[in-house]
From TrEMBL:
Gene3D superfamilies on file: 1.20.58.2240, 3.30.420.40
Gene Ontology molecular functions: ATP binding; D-ribulokinase activity; ribulokinase activity
Transmembrane annotation, as ranges: none
Pathway(s) of this molecule: Carbohydrate degradation; L-arabinose degradation via L-ribulose; D-xylulose 5-phosphate from L-arabinose (bacterial route): step 2/3
Domain Carbohydrate kinase FGGY C-terminal: 291-505
Domain Carbohydrate kinase FGGY N-terminal span(s) in chain numbering: 4-280
Catalytic activity: L-ribulose + ATP = L-ribulose 5-phosphate + ADP + H(+)
Family indicated by similarity: Belongs to the ribulokinase family.
Enzyme Commission number: 2.7.1.16
PANTHER family: FGGY CARBOHYDRATE KINASE DOMAIN-CONTAINING PROTEIN, RIBULOKINASE
GO cellular component: cytoplasm
Keyword terms: Arabinose catabolism, ATP-binding, Carbohydrate metabolism, Kinase, Nucleotide-binding, Transferase
Protein's recorded name: Ribulokinase
Protein backbone atom coordinates (compact mmCIF):
# COMPACT_ATOMS: atom_id res chain seq x y z
CA UNK A 1 0.00 0.00 0.00
CA UNK A 2 1.23 3.50 -0.83
CA UNK A 3 1.79 5.68 2.23
CA UNK A 4 0.88 9.33 2.61
CA UNK A 5 1.55 11.90 5.30
CA UNK A 6 0.16 15.31 6.19
CA UNK A 7 2.24 18.33 7.22
CA UNK A 8 0.30 21.09 8.94
CA UNK A 9 2.02 24.46 9.08
CA UNK A 10 0.69 27.27 11.28
CA UNK A 11 2.11 30.59 10.05
CA UNK A 12 1.46 34.06 11.38
CA UNK A 13 -1.66 34.73 9.29
CA UNK A 14 -2.80 31.34 8.06
CA UNK A 15 -2.54 27.58 8.44
CA UNK A 16 -1.66 25.33 5.50
CA UNK A 17 -1.98 21.56 5.14
CA UNK A 18 -0.18 19.52 2.51
CA UNK A 19 -0.78 15.86 1.73
CA UNK A 20 2.46 14.27 0.57
CA UNK A 21 3.45 10.99 -1.07
CA UNK A 22 6.19 9.51 1.16
CA UNK A 23 7.87 7.86 -1.81
CA UNK A 24 9.02 11.06 -3.50
CA UNK A 25 7.67 14.08 -1.62
CA UNK A 26 5.08 14.84 -4.32
CA UNK A 27 2.32 17.14 -3.11
CA UNK A 28 -1.10 15.63 -3.85
CA UNK A 29 -3.23 18.29 -2.24
CA UNK A 30 -2.89 21.53 -0.36
CA UNK A 31 -5.27 23.80 1.52
CA UNK A 32 -4.86 27.18 3.24
CA UNK A 33 -7.11 28.81 5.81
CA UNK A 34 -6.73 32.39 7.06
CA UNK A 35 -7.42 33.12 10.73
CA UNK A 36 -10.73 34.97 10.74
CA UNK A 37 -10.56 36.77 14.11
CA UNK A 38 -6.90 37.66 13.56
CA UNK A 39 -7.72 39.09 10.13
CA UNK A 40 -10.26 41.36 11.79
CA UNK A 41 -7.56 42.59 14.16
CA UNK A 42 -9.33 41.17 17.22
CA UNK A 43 -7.51 40.86 20.55
CA UNK A 44 -4.43 42.76 19.28
CA UNK A 45 -3.07 46.20 20.07
CA UNK A 46 -0.20 46.77 17.63
CA UNK A 47 0.66 50.13 19.20
CA UNK A 48 1.40 48.24 22.44
CA UNK A 49 3.04 45.34 20.60
CA UNK A 50 0.23 43.07 21.77
CA UNK A 51 -0.46 40.25 19.30
CA UNK A 52 -2.81 37.52 20.48
CA UNK A 53 -4.60 34.78 18.55
CA UNK A 54 -7.77 32.99 19.56
CA UNK A 55 -7.35 29.19 19.57
CA UNK A 56 -10.65 28.90 17.68
CA UNK A 57 -8.91 30.43 14.65
CA UNK A 58 -6.44 27.56 14.81
CA UNK A 59 -8.98 24.83 15.47
CA UNK A 60 -11.29 25.94 12.66
CA UNK A 61 -8.30 26.09 10.29
CA UNK A 62 -7.17 22.62 11.38
CA UNK A 63 -10.52 21.06 10.60
CA UNK A 64 -10.91 22.83 7.27
CA UNK A 65 -7.42 22.32 5.84
CA UNK A 66 -6.97 18.68 6.78
CA UNK A 67 -10.50 17.70 5.69
CA UNK A 68 -9.85 19.54 2.41
CA UNK A 69 -6.62 17.73 1.59
CA UNK A 70 -8.04 14.34 2.52
CA UNK A 71 -11.02 14.91 0.20
CA UNK A 72 -9.10 16.60 -2.61
CA UNK A 73 -6.38 13.94 -2.78
CA UNK A 74 -8.91 11.12 -2.95
CA UNK A 75 -6.50 8.73 -1.20
CA UNK A 76 -7.82 6.10 1.21
CA UNK A 77 -7.86 7.43 4.80
CA UNK A 78 -6.03 4.33 6.05
CA UNK A 79 -3.10 5.13 3.75
CA UNK A 80 -2.52 8.44 5.58
CA UNK A 81 -0.07 7.11 8.11
CA UNK A 82 0.99 10.19 10.01
CA UNK A 83 0.53 13.92 10.68
CA UNK A 84 3.09 16.38 12.04
CA UNK A 85 2.36 19.93 13.12
CA UNK A 86 4.68 22.90 12.97
CA UNK A 87 3.79 26.35 14.27
CA UNK A 88 5.34 29.73 14.90
CA UNK A 89 7.14 30.17 18.17
CA UNK A 90 7.54 31.06 20.87
CA UNK A 91 3.74 31.23 20.84
CA UNK A 92 2.59 29.82 24.17
CA UNK A 93 -0.96 29.59 25.52
CA UNK A 94 -2.42 28.81 28.93
CA UNK A 95 -4.40 25.59 29.36
CA UNK A 96 -6.51 24.02 32.10
CA UNK A 97 -5.82 20.66 33.78
CA UNK A 98 -7.34 18.77 30.84
CA UNK A 99 -5.12 20.63 28.39
CA UNK A 100 -8.00 22.74 27.05
CA UNK A 101 -7.03 26.26 26.01
CA UNK A 102 -8.19 28.67 28.70
CA UNK A 103 -9.77 30.89 26.04
CA UNK A 104 -12.16 28.02 25.27
CA UNK A 105 -13.42 27.84 28.84
CA UNK A 106 -16.25 29.92 30.37
CA UNK A 107 -15.28 33.44 31.37
CA UNK A 108 -12.10 33.56 29.27
CA UNK A 109 -13.52 33.53 25.73
CA UNK A 110 -12.82 37.22 25.10
CA UNK A 111 -9.74 37.62 27.31
CA UNK A 112 -6.59 38.20 25.19
CA UNK A 113 -4.41 37.15 28.14
CA UNK A 114 -5.99 33.69 28.00
CA UNK A 115 -5.16 33.30 24.30
CA UNK A 116 -2.06 32.39 22.38
CA UNK A 117 0.68 34.98 22.78
CA UNK A 118 2.02 35.19 19.24
CA UNK A 119 5.81 35.12 18.70
CA UNK A 120 5.88 38.79 17.72
CA UNK A 121 4.07 39.99 20.85
CA UNK A 122 6.58 42.16 22.72
CA UNK A 123 4.54 43.09 25.77
CA UNK A 124 7.05 41.36 28.03
CA UNK A 125 10.18 43.38 27.35
CA UNK A 126 10.65 44.21 31.04
CA UNK A 127 10.16 40.62 32.10
CA UNK A 128 12.79 39.48 29.58
CA UNK A 129 15.16 42.04 31.02
CA UNK A 130 14.51 40.71 34.53
CA UNK A 131 15.26 37.18 33.37
CA UNK A 132 18.53 38.31 31.78
CA UNK A 133 19.53 40.26 34.87
CA UNK A 134 18.83 37.34 37.18
CA UNK A 135 20.52 34.78 34.91
CA UNK A 136 23.72 36.81 34.99
CA UNK A 137 23.67 37.72 38.66
CA UNK A 138 22.01 35.02 40.74
CA UNK A 139 25.19 33.05 41.31
CA UNK A 140 23.97 29.84 39.67
CA UNK A 141 23.89 28.54 36.12
CA UNK A 142 23.40 31.16 33.41
CA UNK A 143 20.39 29.50 31.83
CA UNK A 144 20.55 31.82 28.82
CA UNK A 145 23.88 30.42 27.69
CA UNK A 146 22.46 28.08 25.05
CA UNK A 147 20.01 30.80 23.93
CA UNK A 148 22.76 33.05 22.62
CA UNK A 149 23.27 34.61 26.08
CA UNK A 150 20.24 36.91 25.89
CA UNK A 151 16.66 35.91 26.71
CA UNK A 152 14.08 37.59 24.50
CA UNK A 153 10.63 39.03 25.16
CA UNK A 154 9.47 36.84 22.26
CA UNK A 155 9.95 33.76 24.42
CA UNK A 156 8.08 31.45 26.77
CA UNK A 157 9.05 32.45 30.33
CA UNK A 158 9.02 36.20 29.70
CA UNK A 159 5.50 35.95 28.26
CA UNK A 160 4.14 33.83 31.09
CA UNK A 161 5.72 36.08 33.71
CA UNK A 162 4.11 39.09 32.08
CA UNK A 163 0.64 37.53 31.93
CA UNK A 164 0.91 36.33 35.53
CA UNK A 165 1.72 39.89 36.58
CA UNK A 166 -1.10 41.56 34.68
CA UNK A 167 -3.92 39.03 34.97
CA UNK A 168 -4.59 37.37 38.31
CA UNK A 169 -7.48 35.31 36.87
CA UNK A 170 -5.38 33.77 34.15
CA UNK A 171 -2.54 33.21 36.59
CA UNK A 172 -4.85 31.32 38.95
CA UNK A 173 -6.76 29.33 36.34
CA UNK A 174 -3.88 28.38 34.03
CA UNK A 175 -2.93 24.89 35.14
CA UNK A 176 -0.10 24.78 32.63
CA UNK A 177 1.19 26.51 29.48
CA UNK A 178 1.87 24.93 26.13
CA UNK A 179 3.70 26.03 23.03
CA UNK A 180 1.31 26.22 20.10
CA UNK A 181 2.97 23.23 18.36
CA UNK A 182 2.46 21.11 21.49
CA UNK A 183 -1.10 22.29 22.01
CA UNK A 184 -2.32 21.32 18.53
CA UNK A 185 -0.45 18.00 18.71
CA UNK A 186 -2.08 17.31 22.09
CA UNK A 187 -5.50 18.22 20.71
CA UNK A 188 -5.21 15.59 17.97
CA UNK A 189 -3.48 12.91 20.00
CA UNK A 190 -5.05 10.09 22.01
CA UNK A 191 -2.37 10.66 24.66
CA UNK A 192 -4.31 12.99 26.92
CA UNK A 193 -2.16 13.12 30.03
CA UNK A 194 -0.44 16.51 30.29
CA UNK A 195 2.20 15.22 32.70
CA UNK A 196 3.57 12.62 30.28
CA UNK A 197 2.66 14.21 26.96
CA UNK A 198 5.72 14.46 24.68
CA UNK A 199 6.63 18.13 24.38
CA UNK A 200 8.69 19.49 21.54
CA UNK A 201 12.47 19.57 21.99
CA UNK A 202 12.67 22.34 19.42
CA UNK A 203 10.27 24.62 21.30
CA UNK A 204 11.61 23.81 24.75
CA UNK A 205 15.27 24.14 23.81
CA UNK A 206 15.11 27.33 21.78
CA UNK A 207 12.56 29.23 23.85
CA UNK A 208 12.17 27.80 27.36
CA UNK A 209 15.84 27.37 28.36
CA UNK A 210 15.46 23.58 28.46
CA UNK A 211 18.82 21.81 28.30
CA UNK A 212 20.08 18.28 28.97
CA UNK A 213 23.03 19.57 30.98
CA UNK A 214 20.77 20.92 33.73
CA UNK A 215 18.23 18.12 33.39
CA UNK A 216 15.48 20.12 31.80
CA UNK A 217 13.97 23.51 32.52
CA UNK A 218 15.64 26.14 34.77
CA UNK A 219 15.53 25.22 38.45
CA UNK A 220 12.65 26.13 40.76
CA UNK A 221 15.07 28.19 42.77
CA UNK A 222 15.87 30.35 39.75
CA UNK A 223 12.25 30.62 38.59
CA UNK A 224 11.06 31.35 42.12
CA UNK A 225 13.34 34.37 42.28
CA UNK A 226 11.45 35.77 39.30
CA UNK A 227 8.00 34.94 40.64
CA UNK A 228 6.64 32.22 42.92
CA UNK A 229 4.05 31.35 40.26
CA UNK A 230 6.77 30.29 37.81
CA UNK A 231 8.37 27.93 40.33
CA UNK A 232 4.95 26.36 40.92
CA UNK A 233 4.29 26.12 37.22
CA UNK A 234 7.54 24.23 36.67
CA UNK A 235 6.04 21.21 38.47
CA UNK A 236 3.22 21.18 35.94
CA UNK A 237 5.42 21.47 32.84
CA UNK A 238 7.95 18.81 31.81
CA UNK A 239 11.46 17.47 32.32
CA UNK A 240 11.93 15.43 29.17
CA UNK A 241 11.49 16.63 25.61
CA UNK A 242 11.27 14.80 22.28
CA UNK A 243 12.37 15.29 18.70
CA UNK A 244 9.85 15.30 15.86
CA UNK A 245 10.84 11.92 14.47
CA UNK A 246 9.03 10.45 17.50
CA UNK A 247 5.37 9.55 17.91
CA UNK A 248 3.33 11.66 20.34
CA UNK A 249 0.26 9.42 20.05
CA UNK A 250 -2.37 8.14 17.67
CA UNK A 251 -5.07 10.36 16.22
CA UNK A 252 -7.91 10.38 18.73
CA UNK A 253 -11.42 9.18 17.95
CA UNK A 254 -13.01 12.62 18.03
CA UNK A 255 -10.58 14.16 15.54
CA UNK A 256 -10.40 11.07 13.34
CA UNK A 257 -14.17 11.43 12.84
CA UNK A 258 -13.96 15.18 12.22
CA UNK A 259 -11.15 14.85 9.67
CA UNK A 260 -12.35 11.74 7.85
CA UNK A 261 -9.33 9.70 9.02
CA UNK A 262 -8.76 6.61 11.13
CA UNK A 263 -7.24 6.28 14.59
CA UNK A 264 -4.31 4.36 13.06
CA UNK A 265 -2.78 7.64 11.88
CA UNK A 266 0.09 8.57 14.18
CA UNK A 267 0.78 12.12 15.35
CA UNK A 268 4.45 13.08 15.44
CA UNK A 269 5.91 15.37 18.12
CA UNK A 270 5.38 19.03 17.15
CA UNK A 271 8.00 21.54 16.05
CA UNK A 272 8.54 25.12 14.83
CA UNK A 273 7.93 26.32 11.28
CA UNK A 274 11.49 27.50 10.68
CA UNK A 275 13.05 24.23 11.73
CA UNK A 276 10.68 22.10 9.68
CA UNK A 277 11.20 24.52 6.78
CA UNK A 278 14.90 23.75 6.92
CA UNK A 279 14.15 20.03 6.72
CA UNK A 280 11.79 20.66 3.79
CA UNK A 281 14.67 22.44 2.02
CA UNK A 282 17.13 19.55 2.57
CA UNK A 283 19.21 21.22 5.26
CA UNK A 284 22.76 19.92 5.68
CA UNK A 285 25.93 21.01 7.44
CA UNK A 286 27.46 24.39 6.52
CA UNK A 287 24.23 25.45 4.83
CA UNK A 288 22.27 28.45 6.02
CA UNK A 289 18.55 28.08 5.43
CA UNK A 290 16.75 31.43 5.49
CA UNK A 291 13.00 31.31 5.97
CA UNK A 292 12.04 34.70 4.59
CA UNK A 293 8.50 35.81 5.30
CA UNK A 294 7.00 38.18 7.83
CA UNK A 295 10.18 37.69 9.83
CA UNK A 296 13.24 35.62 9.03
CA UNK A 297 14.51 32.57 10.75
CA UNK A 298 18.03 31.48 9.91
CA UNK A 299 18.67 27.84 10.57
CA UNK A 300 21.84 25.76 10.50
CA UNK A 301 22.83 22.31 11.74
CA UNK A 302 26.23 21.25 13.02
CA UNK A 303 27.62 18.08 14.60
CA UNK A 304 28.20 18.05 18.33
CA UNK A 305 31.91 17.37 17.73
CA UNK A 306 32.24 20.71 15.91
CA UNK A 307 30.20 22.80 18.35
CA UNK A 308 31.42 20.96 21.44
CA UNK A 309 31.01 23.10 24.56
CA UNK A 310 31.10 26.31 22.57
CA UNK A 311 28.12 28.60 22.93
CA UNK A 312 27.33 30.74 19.90
CA UNK A 313 26.89 34.34 21.07
CA UNK A 314 23.82 36.41 20.27
CA UNK A 315 21.68 33.85 18.40
CA UNK A 316 18.33 32.26 19.35
CA UNK A 317 19.78 29.11 20.65
CA UNK A 318 21.59 25.90 19.89
CA UNK A 319 19.58 22.78 20.58
CA UNK A 320 20.47 19.14 20.15
CA UNK A 321 17.94 17.68 17.71
CA UNK A 322 15.82 20.77 17.12
CA UNK A 323 16.15 20.31 13.35
CA UNK A 324 17.76 16.90 12.78
CA UNK A 325 18.00 14.40 15.63
CA UNK A 326 21.63 13.90 16.54
CA UNK A 327 22.81 17.28 15.22
CA UNK A 328 22.82 20.65 16.96
CA UNK A 329 20.23 23.00 15.47
CA UNK A 330 21.22 26.68 15.45
CA UNK A 331 18.63 29.41 15.06
CA UNK A 332 18.94 33.14 14.40
CA UNK A 333 16.59 35.59 12.72
CA UNK A 334 15.11 39.04 12.15
CA UNK A 335 11.96 40.09 13.99
CA UNK A 336 10.73 41.88 10.89
CA UNK A 337 11.63 41.14 7.29
CA UNK A 338 8.60 41.20 4.95
CA UNK A 339 6.86 42.93 7.84
CA UNK A 340 9.02 46.03 7.36
CA UNK A 341 7.72 46.34 3.81
CA UNK A 342 4.19 45.48 4.96
CA UNK A 343 4.46 48.33 7.50
CA UNK A 344 5.50 50.76 4.75
CA UNK A 345 2.68 49.55 2.52
CA UNK A 346 0.27 50.20 5.36
CA UNK A 347 1.61 53.74 5.80
CA UNK A 348 1.16 54.45 2.10
CA UNK A 349 -2.35 53.03 2.18
CA UNK A 350 -3.53 55.53 4.79
CA UNK A 351 -5.13 57.96 2.31
CA UNK A 352 -6.75 55.07 0.46
CA UNK A 353 -8.25 53.67 3.63
CA UNK A 354 -9.23 57.01 5.12
CA UNK A 355 -9.92 59.41 2.26
CA UNK A 356 -10.85 57.28 -0.71
CA UNK A 357 -13.10 55.01 1.35
CA UNK A 358 -14.97 58.01 2.82
CA UNK A 359 -15.28 59.83 -0.49
CA UNK A 360 -18.63 60.36 -2.25
CA UNK A 361 -17.17 60.82 -5.73
CA UNK A 362 -17.49 57.15 -6.63
CA UNK A 363 -19.86 54.44 -5.41
CA UNK A 364 -19.03 51.87 -2.74
CA UNK A 365 -18.40 49.07 -5.18
CA UNK A 366 -15.94 51.16 -7.20
CA UNK A 367 -14.24 52.33 -4.01
CA UNK A 368 -13.75 48.76 -2.90
CA UNK A 369 -12.39 47.71 -6.29
CA UNK A 370 -10.03 50.66 -6.41
CA UNK A 371 -8.82 50.01 -2.89
CA UNK A 372 -8.09 46.37 -3.74
CA UNK A 373 -6.28 47.37 -6.91
CA UNK A 374 -4.01 49.73 -4.99
CA UNK A 375 -3.42 47.19 -2.21
CA UNK A 376 -2.62 44.37 -4.62
CA UNK A 377 -0.26 46.38 -6.80
CA UNK A 378 1.54 48.61 -4.36
CA UNK A 379 4.53 46.39 -3.53
CA UNK A 380 4.85 45.25 -7.15
CA UNK A 381 4.96 48.83 -8.46
CA UNK A 382 7.31 50.02 -5.75
CA UNK A 383 9.58 47.10 -6.59
CA UNK A 384 9.59 47.96 -10.29
CA UNK A 385 10.46 51.58 -9.57
CA UNK A 386 13.02 50.81 -6.86
CA UNK A 387 14.81 48.43 -9.20
CA UNK A 388 15.27 51.27 -11.68
CA UNK A 389 17.00 53.55 -9.17
CA UNK A 390 20.73 53.36 -9.92
CA UNK A 391 23.04 52.70 -7.02
CA UNK A 392 24.77 56.00 -7.78
CA UNK A 393 21.56 57.84 -6.84
CA UNK A 394 21.15 58.83 -3.19
CA UNK A 395 18.73 56.60 -1.32
CA UNK A 396 17.97 56.98 2.37
CA UNK A 397 19.64 54.75 4.94
CA UNK A 398 17.17 52.75 7.03
CA UNK A 399 17.24 50.28 9.91
CA UNK A 400 15.18 47.10 9.92
CA UNK A 401 14.35 47.16 13.64
CA UNK A 402 10.68 48.07 13.28
CA UNK A 403 9.85 45.13 15.57
CA UNK A 404 13.07 45.25 17.58
CA UNK A 405 16.12 43.12 16.86
CA UNK A 406 16.03 39.38 17.29
CA UNK A 407 19.63 38.63 16.33
CA UNK A 408 22.48 39.21 16.60
CA UNK A 409 22.07 40.06 20.30
CA UNK A 410 18.32 40.24 20.94
CA UNK A 411 17.07 43.68 21.86
CA UNK A 412 13.37 44.09 21.27
CA UNK A 413 13.42 47.64 22.56
CA UNK A 414 15.26 48.91 19.52
CA UNK A 415 13.29 50.86 16.95
CA UNK A 416 13.78 51.46 13.25
CA UNK A 417 14.99 54.76 11.80
CA UNK A 418 15.41 56.38 8.40
CA UNK A 419 18.08 58.96 7.67
CA UNK A 420 19.40 60.86 4.64
CA UNK A 421 15.98 62.02 3.50
CA UNK A 422 15.86 64.94 1.09
CA UNK A 423 13.29 66.79 -1.00
CA UNK A 424 14.26 64.46 -3.82
CA UNK A 425 13.31 61.33 -1.83
CA UNK A 426 10.30 59.59 -3.35
CA UNK A 427 8.32 56.58 -2.15
CA UNK A 428 10.38 54.09 -4.24
CA UNK A 429 13.61 55.49 -2.73
CA UNK A 430 12.33 54.74 0.74
CA UNK A 431 11.18 51.29 -0.39
CA UNK A 432 14.66 50.61 -1.78
CA UNK A 433 16.19 51.80 1.49
CA UNK A 434 13.95 49.41 3.44
CA UNK A 435 14.91 46.51 1.20
CA UNK A 436 18.57 47.38 1.74
CA UNK A 437 17.93 47.52 5.49
CA UNK A 438 16.46 44.01 5.72
CA UNK A 439 19.38 42.71 3.67
CA UNK A 440 21.95 44.48 5.87
CA UNK A 441 20.22 43.00 8.94
CA UNK A 442 20.62 39.59 7.28
CA UNK A 443 24.32 40.22 6.68
CA UNK A 444 24.81 40.95 10.38
CA UNK A 445 23.50 37.45 11.12
CA UNK A 446 25.74 35.77 8.55
CA UNK A 447 28.72 37.71 9.92
CA UNK A 448 27.91 36.64 13.46
CA UNK A 449 27.75 32.94 12.58
CA UNK A 450 31.10 33.21 10.82
CA UNK A 451 32.71 35.26 13.61
CA UNK A 452 31.63 32.51 16.00
CA UNK A 453 33.28 29.86 13.85
CA UNK A 454 30.17 28.42 12.15
CA UNK A 455 31.14 28.14 8.50
CA UNK A 456 28.55 28.96 5.81
CA UNK A 457 29.19 27.47 2.38
CA UNK A 458 25.72 27.66 0.90
CA UNK A 459 22.61 29.83 1.41
CA UNK A 460 19.12 28.54 0.64
CA UNK A 461 16.08 30.80 0.72
CA UNK A 462 12.55 29.60 1.40
CA UNK A 463 9.30 31.35 2.29
CA UNK A 464 7.05 33.97 0.71
CA UNK A 465 9.66 36.66 0.07
CA UNK A 466 12.27 34.25 -1.33
CA UNK A 467 9.78 33.03 -3.91
CA UNK A 468 7.97 36.28 -4.68
CA UNK A 469 10.66 38.93 -4.78
CA UNK A 470 13.61 38.49 -7.17
CA UNK A 471 14.48 42.11 -6.35
CA UNK A 472 15.03 41.35 -2.66
CA UNK A 473 16.85 38.12 -3.42
CA UNK A 474 19.23 39.83 -5.86
CA UNK A 475 19.89 42.62 -3.35
CA UNK A 476 20.56 40.00 -0.69
CA UNK A 477 23.01 38.10 -2.91
CA UNK A 478 24.87 41.37 -3.52
CA UNK A 479 24.90 42.34 0.16
CA UNK A 480 25.99 38.90 1.36
CA UNK A 481 28.32 38.56 -1.62
CA UNK A 482 27.21 34.93 -1.82
CA UNK A 483 25.02 32.98 -4.23
CA UNK A 484 21.57 32.07 -2.93
CA UNK A 485 19.36 29.27 -4.20
CA UNK A 486 15.61 29.25 -3.69
CA UNK A 487 13.67 26.12 -2.80
CA UNK A 488 10.92 25.42 -5.31
CA UNK A 489 8.31 24.39 -2.77
CA UNK A 490 5.72 26.96 -1.82
CA UNK A 491 5.20 25.09 1.40
CA UNK A 492 8.65 24.12 2.66
CA UNK A 493 7.69 24.19 6.39
CA UNK A 494 4.62 22.02 5.78
CA UNK A 495 6.70 19.71 3.61
CA UNK A 496 9.31 19.50 6.38
CA UNK A 497 6.56 18.59 8.85
CA UNK A 498 5.42 15.89 6.44
CA UNK A 499 9.00 14.58 6.35
CA UNK A 500 9.08 14.30 10.15
CA UNK A 501 5.71 12.55 9.96
CA UNK A 502 7.12 9.98 7.50
CA UNK A 503 9.98 9.18 9.89
CA UNK A 504 7.67 8.99 12.91
CA UNK A 505 5.50 6.50 11.00
CA UNK A 506 8.56 4.37 10.28
CA UNK A 507 8.58 4.92 6.50
CA UNK A 508 12.19 6.15 6.70
CA UNK A 509 14.95 5.38 9.19
CA UNK A 510 15.90 8.96 9.86
CA UNK A 511 15.18 12.59 9.00
CA UNK A 512 18.22 13.02 6.73
CA UNK A 513 17.24 10.08 4.56
CA UNK A 514 13.61 11.25 4.37
CA UNK A 515 14.64 14.85 3.67
CA UNK A 516 16.83 13.81 0.73
CA UNK A 517 14.00 11.69 -0.74
CA UNK A 518 11.07 13.97 -0.02
CA UNK A 519 12.61 17.46 0.32
CA UNK A 520 12.03 20.32 -2.09
CA UNK A 521 13.89 20.81 -5.36
CA UNK A 522 15.47 24.16 -6.07
CA UNK A 523 14.52 26.76 -8.64
CA UNK A 524 16.07 30.21 -9.03
CA UNK A 525 19.68 30.94 -8.11
CA UNK A 526 20.90 34.48 -7.49
CA UNK A 527 24.57 35.34 -7.93
CA UNK A 528 26.28 38.44 -6.54
CA UNK A 529 26.74 41.11 -9.23
CA UNK A 530 30.42 41.93 -8.79
CA UNK A 531 29.97 45.47 -10.12
CA UNK A 532 27.55 46.26 -7.24
CA UNK A 533 29.08 44.40 -4.32
CA UNK A 534 31.43 47.20 -3.30
CA UNK A 535 28.70 49.84 -3.35
CA UNK A 536 26.52 47.69 -1.09
CA UNK A 537 29.44 47.26 1.30
CA UNK A 538 29.73 51.05 1.44
CA UNK A 539 25.98 51.43 2.11
CA UNK A 540 26.26 48.76 4.78
CA UNK A 541 28.87 50.82 6.61
CA UNK A 542 26.41 53.74 6.64
CA UNK A 543 23.76 51.34 7.99
CA UNK A 544 26.19 50.39 10.74
CA UNK A 545 26.77 54.05 11.67
CA UNK A 546 23.01 54.64 11.92
CA UNK A 547 22.57 51.39 13.84
CA UNK A 548 25.24 52.32 16.41
CA UNK A 549 23.84 55.83 16.77
CA UNK A 550 20.29 54.58 17.31
CA UNK A 551 21.28 51.85 19.72
CA UNK A 552 23.46 54.21 21.78
CA UNK A 553 20.70 56.77 21.80
CA UNK A 554 18.20 54.25 23.18
CA UNK A 555 20.75 53.06 25.74
CA UNK A 556 21.45 56.58 26.96
CA UNK A 557 17.75 57.45 27.17
CA UNK A 558 17.24 54.34 29.26
CA UNK A 559 20.16 55.24 31.48
CA UNK A 560 18.71 58.70 32.03
CA UNK A 561 15.41 57.16 33.14
CA UNK A 562 17.15 54.67 35.44
CA UNK A 563 19.38 57.41 36.94
CA UNK A 564 16.40 59.65 37.62
CA UNK A 565 14.59 56.92 39.63
N1 LIG B 1 6.56 40.67 -3.73
C1 LIG B 1 6.87 40.89 -2.46
N2 LIG B 1 7.89 41.72 -2.17
C2 LIG B 1 8.24 41.93 -0.88
N3 LIG B 1 7.62 41.38 0.18
C3 LIG B 1 6.60 40.58 -0.05
C4 LIG B 1 6.17 40.28 -1.38
N4 LIG B 1 5.13 39.44 -1.27
C5 LIG B 1 4.92 39.22 0.05
N5 LIG B 1 5.79 39.90 0.79
C6 LIG B 1 5.89 39.93 2.26
O1 LIG B 1 6.00 38.58 2.69
C7 LIG B 1 5.45 38.42 4.00
C8 LIG B 1 4.63 37.14 4.05
O2 LIG B 1 5.48 36.05 3.87
P1 LIG B 1 4.96 34.52 3.91
O3 LIG B 1 6.14 33.65 3.84
O4 LIG B 1 3.94 34.37 2.83
O5 LIG B 1 4.19 34.44 5.30
P2 LIG B 1 4.63 33.97 6.80
O6 LIG B 1 5.86 34.71 7.18
O7 LIG B 1 3.47 34.36 7.66
O8 LIG B 1 4.82 32.48 6.74
C9 LIG B 1 4.66 39.68 4.28
O9 LIG B 1 5.35 40.44 5.24
C10 LIG B 1 4.64 40.43 2.94
O10 LIG B 1 4.72 41.82 3.14
O1 LIG C 1 10.71 32.43 15.50
C1 LIG C 1 10.19 31.54 14.89
C2 LIG C 1 10.60 30.14 15.12
O2 LIG C 1 11.54 30.05 16.13
C3 LIG C 1 9.10 31.75 13.87
O3 LIG C 1 8.04 30.96 14.23
C4 LIG C 1 8.64 33.19 13.75
O4 LIG C 1 9.69 33.96 13.27
C5 LIG C 1 7.45 33.34 12.80
O5 LIG C 1 7.74 32.92 11.52
P1 LIG C 1 6.93 33.44 10.21
O6 LIG C 1 7.46 34.80 9.88
O7 LIG C 1 5.47 33.43 10.51
O8 LIG C 1 7.30 32.42 9.14
Amino acid sequence: MKKYVIGLDYGTDSVRAVLIDTENGAELATSVSYYQRWKEGKFCQPEQNQFRQHPLDHIEGLEKTISDVVKESGVAPESIVSICIDTTGSSPLPVNKEGIALALTPGFEQNPNAMMILWKDHTSIHEAEEINHLARNWGGEDYTKFEGGIYSSEWFWAKILHINRVDENVKNEAYSWMEHCDYITFLLSDHQDLATFKRSRCAAGHKAMWHESWNGLPSKDFLGQLDASLAELRDRLYDKTYTSDEVAGNLNQEWAAKLGLTTNTVIAVGTFDAHSGAVGAKVEENTLIRIMGTSTCDIMVAPNEIIGDKTVKGICGQVNGSVIPGLIGLEAGQSAFGDLLAWYKDILLWPTQNILMNSNIIDDNQKQLLKEEIENNLIRNLTLEAEKIPLSEAVPIALDWVNGRRTPDANQELKAAISNLSLGTKAPHIFKALVNAICFGSKKIVDRFEEEGVKIEKVIGIGGVARKSPFIMQTLANVLNMPIVVAASDQAPALGAAIYAAVAAGVYHNVQEASQKMGSDFEAEYFPQTEHVEKYAELMSQYQILADFTENNIKSKKKLIVDSL
